[in-house]
């Protein structure tokens, strides 16, 4: 939009990836004079807000400087040799696919840092908390910015240790077991993914994603491609997560602190689907074509499974945890994303990328809201919350209730909000899948996914009814007055609400970025 | 070729520069032994300093050999066939061995004083063993190889048994001794078979002559190859020849355990690489699958056993490091096995991995030595809250453990694993790569569990102890090396490409 010189763009992208790491180191050091704040805890939390804020500003500047007329071109690229022995290059760059994810990551991390500044999760010192948050941010941003397979793997692994500690140290009940489950599952997936990446790199002779995407799998035999997509796909599917590899997710979400859940759902899951779009689709199209029907089948099973699990949790007397419920709803939503990718059409992949962003915004918001509920009521257990008639949030904390209802209807895909376009486009993609894919099979998948949207609507409305509605009994002791939305909560949530509405009313702002890049990826650099 | 011997002359000139590293180490060791007789009791610390200086000089003497193009003790009839070669491979392994010995020596300075170990003997044995280990990578005939191997291991038995009056220590030494001697005997039998079939001891000559072994001697040659390998498998503590490891490590003084885990392993691997890749390439179909299976077994058994260590048992920290070193030995074997299947030179991956492993494992032992000063039982539970009392040591240990696990921030560990994986994938050993992938996950569990303990809130009021300078130096050295390598992994990974042999 505005003209920023290429070298500044280069610097901005490198800054976005490296600055959080430097910030993390700085967070561990004692605060310099003048920045000591009221006490050390406050100083370090403020440091976190400052650093993530600076990253957000840099990411926005990147967006402004991004050449929106050529979103399919890699921009702000840096390409330096790092480890010649392994042919690893520090190759950074952004295009229309990675830019929205980059901004989403920077935004969500900033909002999390802001939220923690006012509401630090219970646990050990905030020093380590801020450092881990920043390392996490660096790892996710790097995942979206790197263009080298081995560097991608490095960035993919970088988020594991910080997330493990965030869950294990600042989490709720059963946090240890959940943290272990999270890290062991994802590590097993990513090591298998490494084997696939190595197979691709060694057979094709390069680890460079741009070169590999331009080759479009021409240098790889079909059997190599199938093996590679299988191995890479398993790693990415664990992260996404795809049914039946999802079982770490509900536990991790239930145990994680609020900001941990927000980042896990909002950003970390996107690394998996991004990998499918960036690596599996363009690098090994033949392998992807062979495995796409299976991927789509697992995806729709995930949609139905996630919705049914949520329905079961939302029932009266099921002792369903709200965080767990939203985690399962993520499995369903990510099923739509995977279905769109499996259709291998521009429509489907665009829909998948749109649903990715929408899910990040909406589920991020929902986890914030449920976290706030849990803080106020001391539990996220739906039965305890709802009591006999419902928690009556509309009556007792109207703004909080309104926001929750907003998040729920956005999540169920109400037209006019962000959730709608992604689901619709992915189903369109499945309606008319790419050449070589069985149309009847994909039509069936589409129909099942359609049933899934109904089920999604059902459980979310049940949740709204049980949490937001009901008879307020002001005299009853167990229903003490609860605080409505606080100032800092407004600050952290408003951007998410605004962007949900914006993306819903004006989808072109996002699709205009992703579409050219997706067309190019699917065509293998021919266009 | 710096030695140009006249073909008629039987008197050889010796390239002293080429043989300087092991020679300096051995000579300093002898000087220490003699000096021990004249140094008064109160000044025994001098011997330690002398040894450290000797090792440092030996390290410096590697500098002129960087080009890796020297050899000496060649046949008068054929100057291409030499017994001692200082090529790239030799220089890198000597760097590893001497650097590792130097770090061990730093750890030992305070340990010898505290455990009242006899200083003269200790330093002499350490230096002799290091000299043998430094000689090994350079030896290019089976006789020198066996002699170097024995020079490296015989002093090690005595070192393990050094703690006088400690039942565990003597038992460990005996166990180590018996298993090692058996290995040597088996290996000598194998060597004699190989000699019988080929009529030469020089590795390159063996490689040539094994190509056309007469039919009736084929079985003998195969048996010879197999038995020689068994001998080296013992030394590397590959499964099923690993049982001596945990007890030996626990019984030995801590620096000696560190020494065994790094230099002891390097010795075994160097020998294994030399005999397989240099001497027996034509029998790759025999040792390739055998080593692949051995690698899979070794890493699985080592990691599963490490997983089962209870955190509150006595010496569990050292025990865990011992078992994890068995697991790591499995990873080290993978590229050697891959070399049998691929025309590319894969053993460089082993060398690169060994360098990484040497730095971070010695670092982990250095922190363990630090903790052992306040908690002599050295249980993993004793590391709880280390971050609160010694933040830098805790961060360093966390970094070392994550390097061993191969996860960021231990970037060098991650990329060293990637080279090993890529060797396996390149050679088409997909199943081995998958086994290794599962093992990486198993290993993460115990490494991360230990790391997590470091950062938990401490129990009770921790006692502050003064930290001895040499141990601090060792921790700082390894940590700085590890972090520097993480920034510039090319420094060690460049050995993974191209041939290291002359």
TrEMBL record, chain A:
Domain NADH:quinone oxidoreductase/Mrp antiporter transmembrane span(s) in chain numbering: 148-432
Short name of one Pfam family: Proton_antipo_M
Keyword Transmembrane applies: yes
Keywords: Membrane, Transmembrane, Transmembrane helix
The keyword Transmembrane is annotated on this UniProt entry: yes
InterPro entries per the UniProt record, alphabetical: NADH_Q_OxRdtase_chainM/4, NADH_UbQ_OxRdtase, ND/Mrp_TM
Subcellular localization: Endomembrane system; Membrane
Protein origin, superkingdom: Bacteria
TM regions (residue ranges): 43-66, 99-118, 138-167, 179-200, 220-238, 259-281, 293-313, 325-345, 351-373, 400-421, 441-464
Topological category with respect to the lipid bilayer: Multi-pass membrane protein
Protein name, per record: NADH-quinone oxidoreductase subunit M
Family per record: Belongs to the complex I subunit 4 family.
TrEMBL record, chain B:
Domain of life, per lineage: Bacteria
Subcellular location: Cell membrane; Endomembrane system; Membrane
Record field: transmembrane: 19-39, 46-68, 88-107, 119-136, 142-160, 172-195, 223-245, 257-280, 286-308, 320-341, 353-372, 392-416, 428-448, 469-488
Primary residence: membrane
Domain NADH:quinone oxidoreductase/Mrp antiporter transmembrane stretches: 139-442
Catalytically driven reaction(s): a quinone + NADH + 5 H(+)(in) = a quinol + NAD(+) + 4 H(+)(out)
EC number: 7.1.1.-
The entry's keywords: Cell membrane, Membrane, NAD, Quinone, Translocase, Transmembrane, Transmembrane helix, Transport
Membrane topology of the entry: Multi-pass membrane protein
Hydrolase in keyword set: no
InterPro entries according to UniProt: NADH-Q_OxRdtase_suN/2, ND/Mrp_TM
Pfam hit, one: Proton_antipo_M
Stated family: Belongs to the complex I subunit 2 family.
Described purpose of this protein according to its UniProt entry: NDH-1 shuttles electrons from NADH, via FMN and iron-sulfur (Fe-S) centers, to quinones in the respiratory chain. The immediate electron acceptor for the enzyme in this species is believed to be a menaquinone. Couples the redox reaction to proton translocation (for every two electrons transferred, four hydrogen ions are translocated across the cytoplasmic membrane), and thus conserves the redox energy in a proton gradient.
Subunit structure: NDH-1 is composed of 14 different subunits. Subunits NuoA, H, J, K, L, M, N constitute the membrane sector of the complex.
Name this polypeptide is given: NADH-quinone oxidoreductase subunit N
Organism: Streptomyces chryseus
Gene name in the database record: nuoN
């Amino acid at each position: 939009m505005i003209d920023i010189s290429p070298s500044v763009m280069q610097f901005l992208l490198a800054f976005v990836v490296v600055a959080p790491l430097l910030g993390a180191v700085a967070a561990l050091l004692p605060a310099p004079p003048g920045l000591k704040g009221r006490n050390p805890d406050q100083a370090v939390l403020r440091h976190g807000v400052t650093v993530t804020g600076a990253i957000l500003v840099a990411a926005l500047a990147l967006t402004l400087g991004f050449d929106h007329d050529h979103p399919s071109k890699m921009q702000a690229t840096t390409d330096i040799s790092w480890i010649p022995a392994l042919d690893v290059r520090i190759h950074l760059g952004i295009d229309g696919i990675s830019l929205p994810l980059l901004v989403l990551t920077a935004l969500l991390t900033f909002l999390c840092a802001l939220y923690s500044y006012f509401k630090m999760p219970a646990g050990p010192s905030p020093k380590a908390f801020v450092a881990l948050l920043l390392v996490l941010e660096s790892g996710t941003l790097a995942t979206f910015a790197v263009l080298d397979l081995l560097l991608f793997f490095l960035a993919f692994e970088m988020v594991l240790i910080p997330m493990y500690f965030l869950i294990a140290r600042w989490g709720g009940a059963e946090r240890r077991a959940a943290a272990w489950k999270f890290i062991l599952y994802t590590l097993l997936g990513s090591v298998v993914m490494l084997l696939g990446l190595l197979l691709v790199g060694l057979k094709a002779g390069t680890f460079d994603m741009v070169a590999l995407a331009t080759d479009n799998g021409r240098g790889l035999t079909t059997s190599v491609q199938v093996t590679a997509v299988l191995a890479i796909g398993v790693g990415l599917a664990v992260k996404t997560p795809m049914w039946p590899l999802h079982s770490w997710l509900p536990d991790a979400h239930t145990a994680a602190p609020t900001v941990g859940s927000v980042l896990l759902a909002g950003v970390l899951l996107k690394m998996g689907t991004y990998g499918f779009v960036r690596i599996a689709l363009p690098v090994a199209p033949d392998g992807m074509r062979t495995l796409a029907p299976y991927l789509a089948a697992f995806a729709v099973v995930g949609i139905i499974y996630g919705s049914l699990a949520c329905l079961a949790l939302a029932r009266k007397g099921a002792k369903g945890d709200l965080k767990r419920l939203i985690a399962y709803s993520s499995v369903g939503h990510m099923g739509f994303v995977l279905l769109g990718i499996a259709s291998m059409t521009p429509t489907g992949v665009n829909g998948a990328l749109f649903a990715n962003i929408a899910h990040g915004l909406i589920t991020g918001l929902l986890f914030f809201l449920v976290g706030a509920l849990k803080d106020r009521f001391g539990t996220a257990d739906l039965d305890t919350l709802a009591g006999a008639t419902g928690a009556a949030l509309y009556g007792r904390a109207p703004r909080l209730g309104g926001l929750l209802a907003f998040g729920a209807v956005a999540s169920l895909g109400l037209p006019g909000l962000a959730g709608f376009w992604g689901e619709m486009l992915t189903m369109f993609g499945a309606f008319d899948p790419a050449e070589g894919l069985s149309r009847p099979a994909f039509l069936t998948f589409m129909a099942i996914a359609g049933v899934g949207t109904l089920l999604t609507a059902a459980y979310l409305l049940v949740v709204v009814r049980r949490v937001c509605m009901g008879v307020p009994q002001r005299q009853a002791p167990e229903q003490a007055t609860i605080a409505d939305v606080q100032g800092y909560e407004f600050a952290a949530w408003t951007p998410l609400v605004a962007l949900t509405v914006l993306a819903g009313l004006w989808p072109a702002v996002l699709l205009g970025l992703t579409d050219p890049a997706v067309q190019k990826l699917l065509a293998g650099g021919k266009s | 070729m710096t030695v140009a011997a006249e073909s008629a002359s039987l008197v050889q000139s010796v390239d002293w520069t080429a043989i300087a590293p092991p020679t300096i180490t051995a000579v300093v060791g002898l000087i220490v032994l003699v000096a021990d007789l004249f140094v008064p009791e109160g000044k025994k610390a001098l011997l330690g300093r002398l040894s450290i200086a000797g090792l440092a000089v030996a390290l410096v003497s590697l500098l002129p050999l960087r080009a890796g193009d020297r050899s000496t003790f060649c046949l008068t009839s054929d100057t291409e066939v030499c017994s001692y070669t200082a090529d790239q491979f030799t220089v890198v392994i000597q760097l590893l061995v001497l650097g590792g010995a130097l770090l061990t020596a730093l750890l030992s300075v305070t340990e010898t004083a505290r455990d009242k170990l006899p200083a003269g003997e200790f330093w002499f044995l350490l230096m002799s063993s290091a000299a043998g280990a430094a000689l090994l990578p350079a030896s290019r005939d089976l006789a020198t190889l066996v002699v170097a191997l024995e020079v490296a291991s015989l002093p090690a038995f005595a070192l393990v048994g050094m703690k006088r009056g400690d039942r565990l220590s003597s038992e460990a030494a005996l166990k180590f001794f018996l298993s090692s001697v058996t290995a040597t005997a088996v290996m000598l039998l194998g060597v004699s078979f190989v000699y019988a079939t080929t009529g030469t001891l020089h590795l390159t000559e063996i490689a040539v002559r094994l190509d056309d072994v007469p039919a009736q001697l084929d079985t003998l040659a195969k048996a010879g190859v197999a038995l020689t390998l068994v001998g080296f498998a013992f030394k590397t503590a590959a499964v099923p020849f690993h049982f001596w490891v945990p007890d030996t490590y626990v019984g030995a003084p801590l620096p000696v355990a560190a020494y065994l885990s790094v230099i002891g392993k390097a010795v075994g691997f160097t020998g294994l690489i030399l005999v397989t890749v240099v001497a027996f390439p034509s029998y790759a179909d025999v040792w390739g699958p055998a080593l692949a299976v051995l690698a899979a077994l070794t890493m699985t058994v080592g990691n599963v056993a490490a997983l089962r260590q209870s955190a509150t048992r006595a010496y569990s920290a050292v025990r865990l490091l011992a078992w994890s070193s068995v697991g790591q030995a499995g990873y080290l074997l993978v590229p050697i096995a891959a070399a049998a299947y691929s025309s590319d030179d894969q053993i460089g991956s082993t060398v690169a991995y060994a360098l990484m492993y040497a730095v971070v494992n010695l670092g982990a032992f250095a922190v363990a030595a630090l903790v052992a000063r306040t908690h002599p039982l050295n249980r993993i539970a004793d590391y709880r809250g280390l971050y609160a009392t010694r933040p830098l040591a805790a961060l360093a240990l966390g970094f070392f453990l994550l390097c061993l696990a191969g996860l960021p921030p231990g970037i060098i560990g991650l990329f060293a694993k990637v080279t090993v994986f890529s060797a396996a994938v390149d050679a088409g050993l997909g199943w081995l790569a998958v086994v290794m992938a599962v093992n990486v996950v198993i290993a993460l569990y115990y490494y991360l569990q230990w790391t997590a303990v470091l950062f938990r809130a401490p129990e009770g009021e921790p006692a502050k102890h003064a930290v001895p300078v040499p141990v601090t130096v060792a921790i700082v050295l390894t940590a700085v090396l590890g972090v520097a390598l993480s920034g510039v992994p090319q420094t060690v990974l460049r050995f993974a490409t191209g041939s290291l042999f002359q």
